[in-house]
């Protein structure tokens, strides 16, 4: 099943959201609130463009991207004012899922190989203004990019004959019939532009219209029908809710079939209240929404585990979790920072054992120990350079980069975190 996504775009100029590339009429003075609106009202992804020309304005836009990523609960793809590898690095450090290279600029056509090898093919997208550019540079795009962004509607049926890379179409048309035609093209994974970027956009209503046109818009699809679950006499199944990052158990609630379907459809946790006997969306009153990352069923098919991104507190008391009243227990350390390192380490091992096309990690393993050592040395040097900068954020990012490359070296040499921890403990 090919799901389609609605992707509003934000054009940043002088710290404000403007209407279009060539129309710098201010759409919103508050870029962060606009991004938050899109995220909270059904957008599937966000496309952010920096229209700045100076380095100073570019740094301001980068800072806004960081702030945007902290408040949204959907992926972000960002680009604009890219001149060198360092600009791609800055964009990715904002938390962007991918950095966007504008292929109307010849310098970016030269840059794509270097940034793809450094950061991974899956981190790079390419924007194009015409079909000729795709045809001319298809070998570069196919090898070094994972997504295309077309700046207006092209002959999309011809596009799919040139490349298998999924594309997003950014268009200024406001005609729904034209938008449906775009979304029905097999190579199109998402729609962006003026229509879906309206400041009062009703994403749910438009998705319903798309479904009436036989366009599948749902981001989630259950592998099992609700009828296969073992529910109680009232048709309810308990749901254990866990934070997807910290693994902290947040709450326990119940779903009926309607609540389950609504959760799948919207990506927000929706439950059935046994006391009020009605559906309720977590956060609808408080703003403390729960955004779905995964739903898993247990071996008996009678309990669901939901891993979510929790906004604010999960408990109505204001506590982060409903489970805050101790009954019995002994003293122990509840923190486990090693868990994060182990998770990244395991991912690196998986990339080595199960290579993925376009993966930067696989690229390092393929090049061998000398390349890995070179990158470790480079990242160590960048820590030193960053430490001279009064902004501590730079040090944080560079140290994270260094630790990742150090872990690649650990995997290459068969050293585990357990080995490192034991060595430190023995000192």
TrEMBL record:
Name the InterPro entries for this protein.
Answer: Aldolase_TIM (IPR013785), His_biosynth (IPR006062), His_synth_HisIE (IPR023019), HisE (IPR008179), PRA-CH (IPR026660), PRib-ATP_PPHydrolase-like (IPR021130), PRib_AMP_CycHydrolase_dom (IPR002496), PRib_AMP_CycHydrolase_sf (IPR038019)
Q: Where is this region: Phosphoribosyl-ATP pyrophosphohydrolase?
A: 341-427
Keywords annotated in UniProt: Amino-acid biosynthesis, ATP-binding, Cytoplasm, Histidine biosynthesis, Hydrolase, Multifunctional enzyme, Nucleotide-binding
Q: Tell me where in or outside the cell this protein is found.
A: Cytoplasm
So what EC number does this one have? Answer: 3.5.4.19, 3.6.1.31
Q: Which GO terms describe its molecular function?
A: phosphoribosyl-AMP cyclohydrolase activity; phosphoribosyl-ATP diphosphatase activity
PANTHER family per the UniProt record, alphabetical:
HISTIDINE BIOSYNTHESIS BIFUNCTIONAL PROTEIN (PTHR42945), HISTIDINE BIOSYNTHESIS BIFUNCTIONAL PROTEIN HIS7 (PTHR42945:SF1)
Q: In which pathway does it act?
A: Amino-acid biosynthesis; L-histidine biosynthesis; L-histidine from 5-phospho-alpha-D-ribose 1-diphosphate: step 3/9; Amino-acid biosynthesis; L-histidine biosynthesis; L-histidine from 5-phospho-alpha-D-ribose 1-diphosphate: step 2/9
| Pfam families in UniProt | His_biosynth, PRA-CH, PRA-PH
SUPFAM superfamilies xref list: all-alpha NTP pyrophosphatases, HisI-like, Ribulose-phoshate binding barrel
Q: Mind telling me what this protein is named?
A: Histidine biosynthesis bifunctional protein HisIE
- Region (Phosphoribosyl-AMP cyclohydrolase), start-end ranges: 1-340
């Amino acid at each position: 099943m090919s799901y389609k996504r609605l992707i509003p775009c934000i054009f940043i100029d002088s710290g404000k959201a403007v209407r279009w590339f060539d129309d710098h009429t201010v759409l919103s003075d508050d870029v962060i609130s606009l991004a938050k609106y899109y995220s909270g009202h059904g957008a599937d992804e966000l496309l952010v463009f920096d229209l700045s020309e100076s380095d100073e304005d570019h740094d301001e836009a980068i800072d806004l991207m960081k702030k945007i990523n902290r408040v949204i609960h959907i992926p972000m793809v960002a680009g604009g004012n890219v001149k060198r590898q360092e600009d791609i690095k800055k964009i990715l450090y904002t938390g962007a899922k991918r950095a966007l290279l504008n292929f109307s600029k010849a310098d970016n056509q030269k840059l794509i190989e270097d940034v793809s090898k450094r950061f991974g093919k899956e981190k790079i997208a390419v924007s194009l203004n015409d079909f000729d550019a795709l045809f001319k540079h298809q070998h570069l795009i196919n090898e070094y990019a994972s997504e295309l962004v077309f700046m207006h509607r092209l002959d999309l049926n011809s596009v799919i004959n040139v490349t298998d890379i999924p594309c997003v179409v950014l268009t200024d048309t406001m005609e729904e019939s034209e938008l449906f035609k775009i979304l029905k093209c097999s190579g199109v994974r998402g729609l962006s532009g003026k229509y879906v970027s309206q400041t009062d956009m009703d994403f749910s209503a438009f998705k319903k219209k798309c479904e009436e046109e036989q366009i599948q818009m749902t981001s989630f699809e259950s592998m099992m029908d609700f009828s296969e679950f073992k529910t109680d006499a009232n048709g309810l199944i308990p749901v254990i809710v866990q934070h997807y990052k910290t693994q902290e158990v947040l709450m326990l609630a119940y779903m009926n079939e309607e609540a389950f379907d609504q959760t799948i459809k919207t990506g927000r946790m929706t439950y059935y209240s046994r006391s009020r006997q009605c559906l309720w969306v977590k956060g609808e009153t408080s703003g403390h929404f729960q955004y779905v990352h995964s739903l898993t069923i247990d071996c008996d098919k009678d309990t669901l585990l939901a891993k979510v991104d929790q906004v604010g507190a999960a408990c109505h008391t204001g506590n982060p979790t409903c489970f805050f009243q101790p009954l019995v227990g002994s003293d122990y350390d509840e923190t486990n920072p090693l868990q994060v390192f182990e998770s990244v380490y395991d991912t690196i091992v998986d990339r080595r054992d199960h290579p993925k096309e376009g993966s930067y990690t696989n690229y390092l393993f393929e090049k061998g120990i000398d390349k890995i050592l070179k990158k470790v040395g480079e990242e160590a040097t960048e820590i030193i350079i960053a430490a001279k900068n009064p902004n501590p954020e730079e040090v944080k990012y560079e140290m994270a980069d260094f630790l990742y490359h150090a872990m690649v070296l650990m995997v290459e040499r068969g050293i585990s975190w357990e080995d490192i921890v034991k060595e430190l403990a023995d000192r």
